[in-house]
Amino acid sequence: xxxxxxxxxxxxxxxxxxxxxxxxxxxxxxxxxxxxxxxxxxxxxxxxxxxxxxxxxxxxxxxxxxxxxxxxxxxxxxxxxxxxxxxxxxxxxxxxxxxxxxxxxxxxxxxxxxxxxxxxxxxxxxxxxxxxxxxxxxxxxxxxxxxxxxxxxxxxxxxxxxxxxxxxxxxxxxxxxxxxxxxxxxxxxxxxxxxxxxxxxxxxxxxxxxxxxxxxxxxxxxxxxxxxxx
Length: 230
Fold this sequence. Notes:
Blueprint: E1 4-10, E2 27-28, E3 31-32, H1 33-44, E4 49-54, H2 59-65, E5 75-78, H3 83-92, E6 101-106, H4 114-127, E7 129-135, E8 140-143, E9 149-153, E10 159-168, H5 172-177, H6 187-191, E11 199-202, H7 213-229
Parallel strand pairs: 1-4, 1-6, 4-5, 7-11
Antiparallel strand pairs: 2-3, 6-10, 7-10, 8-9
């Protein structure tokens, strides 16, 4: 392995968050959520370059918010219409070689640890691709169209996919050459088109994604506990 490149996906528009401003710009205990995510990469300290993929309408705001977080080699680039398009834009901005690792993280996930970054990188080197994931603790059911319990899932074999995720660049050419029947929703679904199964590693218990307004209240309550444990 030569270098590790970080790709921070921050292209959301804030629709589900019910805000005039994208959720990643919302204040969480004194800093925008996006800043918490960027600083986690910086605290880890193993990146060659951090690429922040921002919504095209919010490039300037992203630059202003991250002015004190980024180094001279870091970049802010415009995202696409979908998460997958934004992912490809981020990859293109890295100039990664064929023996590097790309680490992807959501700009709306403020509580990520250096241990998680370490785990997905080592897993991607072993397996080609990796993702953090959490075990399911609730009873899981498949709902019918009438919103009734149609069937039950085995909880022990179910995982909740999170980020960071990582990809070894040796598989990139095959991935990009593969025709897609459906657009992938994340790295795990993308690598499956070449019959590659992403290795799963444990997420920290505070690793939540701020998607709706109620999530911000939960994140605020998590903040002090996360700081104590990390």
